[in-house]
Amino acid sequence: MIETIGKEMFPSGSLLYSNLFIQNGEYRSAGEIVAASLAQGEPAPCFLDHVVYESLSNSEVDFTQLNTMVHLTQTKRDQIEAIKKNLDEFHDIVIEHGYTGPIKKEAINDISGSVMISIVSRRLLALREFMEGLNTYGLKDIILKSPEVCKPLFVIGQLEEADATYVASFLNPVFSHQECDERAVEEKVVDNFQDFLHNIEDKKLKGFNAAVAWNNNEEGMDGNHEGIISEEKFEEAKLSAAAVASQKYFFTWPL
Length: 255
Known about the structure:
By secondary structure, this protein is mainly alpha-helical.
């Protein structure tokens, strides 16, 4: 679902604007799905261009100071350049973006500026709905307060795999006093946990097999047994340092 949202609503990191999406609450629903995915640990919605993410985390825009390099994605910059080179071909698009003046070469700066304002304003409207969906799990406030921290979760190509070393670097155990008998046990627990993470990464540990589907229907409404599966299906549980990191109780459980 996350992958589909990225392809259908944010193709190439840009935003596909639709009044129908606004009317039907689809941007908001997409935000709710993304929020649920992040709250459950994965996958992250790394489908936004950095320009789109900047609009998500900071909706304050001075429309009199728009800049193509700062406020437009590469896709939209290419569109603006195409309009400048062949205005007649994009006559309908210019009108669609709300330009009401004469559509001629002499007014190309006004035309491109009007199209830019339309692109950015539409993006902000859609992202406002998307952000309301994210607020389902309180992510809106987190993004607004810590935009740089959240950025790798949303921007294409910025999220790195959490390996054992990365996860271990976030461990911050609160040990007993150095002279306490418990201190040696606590340090051993932390060392063993770090070894556990590295053993996972080195494929020395494997997840258990669990039944994921089985046939618990005796028969159909008409007594027909066709299509009944007699064998249970099993799937190996995902085991990785990143998956362990998503289980937050590991990092809050007192030693």
